[in-house]
Amino acid sequence: MSTTPPPRRRRPLTALLAVVFLVVPLIELYVLIQVGQVIGGWPTIGLLLLSAVLGGWLVRREGRRAWTELSGALRSGRMPARELADAGLVLTGGLLMVAPGFVTDVVGLLLVLPVTRPVARRALTGFAVRRASAQVAGSGVPGFPGAGRPGTHHGPPPGGRRPAGGPDVVPGEVVDDPPRPRDDG
Question: Residue ranges under compositional bias (Low complexity) (predicted)?
Fold first, then answer.
């Protein structure tokens, strides 16, 4: 008898990434063509190069600032949550700004600039908290939201039975290694 696992649901994040990798290049191509038709091909290429150079300079400056704040938080012994988020946002924004295209440049600029980064940080924090809460709630950990709800506890395996002693008992056997001869010599 073959036991095949049930088909897994597609995770929303995976679907979102697939859409992003398919849709964003098409949008970038459309915007590049439109800008090229308005200002010409060479000026469009020049603007792309200028945005990449400006993005590199801005990322280096803001990255240095984020690294300094992160190091300071670690030296003072406090949890560097804000600093880690800022460093991640600057890195992501920098990658987006180096990628060719005007749409990714705008999004990258919003992630890198110190004026707009707090908004992105709040969004990132909210996403991380929701994601972590969903993971904990689905794990059946007592004391957390969702623990004990129907569907959050994984029962016995299909076709199997729960081992005696309750849900926290793992069936197995103790195997002792045979004693090794001592080398006295």
Answer: 164-173
